[in-house]
């Protein structure tokens, strides 16, 4: 309770300081000077972020046992994140250099670290408006899904809890060839990509010592965005994908994504920890919509069928195995099985979305009750196999230029043996203050 | 009796439909006076709250032909690098952090405030509307416009046009049931050079946002040719290279 009071006081203090700091902006007169639109060959920008989180722990949950087996935690634990994202570019003639770095300070019950990662760093050459050549570290962001992208073969997985966060890219070489037409087919773009995977070079992507080839074919056909894509080369198994997106009316958009992964190998355990594998062609698909009402309420809904996911029974068996191995460890001191459970969590069971069927539903209301720049929202992410879910109410304020404030509470609900029911937290409160410069 | 007939006739003369005028030709002339066939321009969009607080955006715009419009936010820092694209009824928004273009709808607003995406990425009026009726009222014409398709943001427009300059002075945006959604006011007619003479300020208010006002200030409107491929999703992250 004392920790909660300190956490709340800290939040209120930061909020007060930030609002006080930027009150001057309210008094500013508007003008439109030529210097405001003058183009410079270089650009520097980014944001600074403060992001404290408090977790309410669930001491009976399997993942609590995995993460807290060696320490006596109270009812809550805090985590403090400070982030500096820097972006810079330099343009000369037809070429442009771009870099994005991400420096994160993390202070949690596990660690206190500061780490800088180059998210992107690439050179692009644009000899004409039809051709763009790029080389270096880059995020490609394939797919049309909002919370999940089963056809994003060359990207790191998205966090559906915060899908708009920037992610680290991979080192690639790519080209875009674009042609416009009049008629039903308005645009065609061909994007071939080369992705080397060698020791020290994209080696987290998959098997090393392969040069992988991927391609995307984009069509704007009958007012519908359509992408066809594939990836082959040996670091992962060959995969094919497609996506689409279309505005049905002035306030309704629908989208979908599909991918087929050949020879996918799934590792799973029974409740005694006996490990098995099965190989199959995994089919993943996503269907979604975004709807805006006349009252400025936005609904986003997506259903995701993760063909590379584990079934409800397989998830339940794993959580039973964690419980059993933990009890053995506590009663006998024998950690062999428990270590195996921990190792499996680094693999298939600890993935961002380990299960098979998910539902995403978000409702946000812009400027409710004439409160301009306030946006309350509520997000539900549910595992429809085991009926467990997280529900996250939030409120965001963007009324001060370049400052974004967000307060969220995540509540996690699910029965014993379910994905969300076995997460280490019962609830979470987080606050994010982000200042752009 | 004679006076009454004269009064009725004068009244009819002042407000009756101008059958001799071609409404469609008039609307095309209004479009031509508002923007060249292919051009670039800079805009400042200001949202003003009832208590006088303001939020400003600086926006670079390119347009080609009847149905291609692109835009890039230059300021504030939180919006810098966001680009928008419209190809006919299709609209997309590119956010650098998200890293890919996502479809948006015409009724959404990328800047908040009273202007929506259809106002910011506006196409020629003659492309989206048919002229149902034209009236002459003193030094102005009033054009009654009806959307050609359901995908247009406003079903009806009532446009007041300066008779001499063939430039709109005011537009009421209405629903199918003639409910007022917003009013656009065209102000401060300015010579931008290159034969472009048009209002430099566009203000809007709405009964749906009582007390709020949004303003668009135009600068550096210049005729410029672009390749069609500039108006594609691939080009959205590179839009700054057009400046």
Kindly summarize this structure in a few lines.
The complex is a heterodimer of chains A (437) and B (243). Chain A has 437 residues and is mainly beta.
How would you describe the overall organization of this protein?
Chain A is mainly β and 437 residues long. Chain A contains five helices and 18 strands. Chain A has an 18-stranded antiparallel β-barrel. The longest helix of chain A has 21 residues, at 312-332. Mean pLDDT of chain A is 91; it is low at 20-29. Chain B is mainly beta. Chain B has four helices and 13 strands. Chain B has a 13-stranded antiparallel β-sheet. Residues 11-18 of chain B have low confidence and may be disordered. At the A-B interface, strand 4, strand 6, strand 7, strand 10 and strand 11 of A face strand 1, strand 2, strand 6 and strand 13 of B.
Treating each run of at least 4 consecutive H or I residues as one helix, how many helices of chain B? 4
In helices, the fraction of residues of chain A equals 10-25%
How many separate helices of chain A?
5
The string of secondary-structure elements of chain B, in order, is HHEEEEEEHHEEEEEEE
CATH superfamily of chain B: Lipoprotein localisation LolA/LolB/LppX
Q: What fraction of the residues of chain A are assigned to beta strands by DSSP?
A: over 45%
Our Rg estimate of chain A from Cα atoms comes to 24 Å
For the sheet with most strands of chain B, the description reads: 13 strands, antiparallel
Biggest sheet layout of chain A? 18 strands, antiparallel, barrel
Round the mean pLDDT of chain A to the nearest integer and report it: 91
